[in-house]
Amino acid sequence: MVHADASNFHAGVTKQEAYAQVYEQAEALFESQRNWVCNLANTASLLWHAYKSLPNPSNQVNWAGFYVLSPGNPRQLILGPFQGKVACQTIAFGRGVCGTAASTAQTQLVEDVEVFPGHIACDSESASEIVVPVVSDRKDEMIETSGERYFPHPGKVKTFLARRDPQK
Hints:
The protein has helices at residues 15-32, 36-53, 96-104, 154-162, and strands at 63-70, 73-84, 90-92, 108-110, 129-135, 140-146. By secondary structure, the protein is of the alpha+beta class. It has a 6-stranded antiparallel beta sheet with strand order 3-2-1-6-5-4, sandwiched between helices. Helix 1 runs antiparallel to helix 2 (36-53). The protein is globular and about 40 Å long.
């Protein structure tokens, strides 16, 4: 069983080292747990603590988490597990950064949210966002990290999360 210390990152950790640790710890957590809520909650926590361990500006992230497809509306995202400030509960496909990522199935890297067409201002402190759509054969999950400008290994996390069956 993975211990809570899995979310501790050493001082001076690089982004590459932090993401490698997130991946390694998430893989260990997922090994014996197939519930998607548990797995996304722990992944959000790992990402949050990884960002907070990094030097400025990366440690200024104010949200890390997931949106998932709404069971009642396949063209709408609903808030999933996250760390940080409260967030929008639902987002329509095509609306805002998350909705755009969901409708295009493409990563959205927005360095200045004020110039993004249709940006949803859930938090006035968010200056930038990155949203990585994680598409499996059954679900879409969104990784959004407001305030984080770079995500050097989104493919690794995306591939790892997508290969998991969130319904088991």
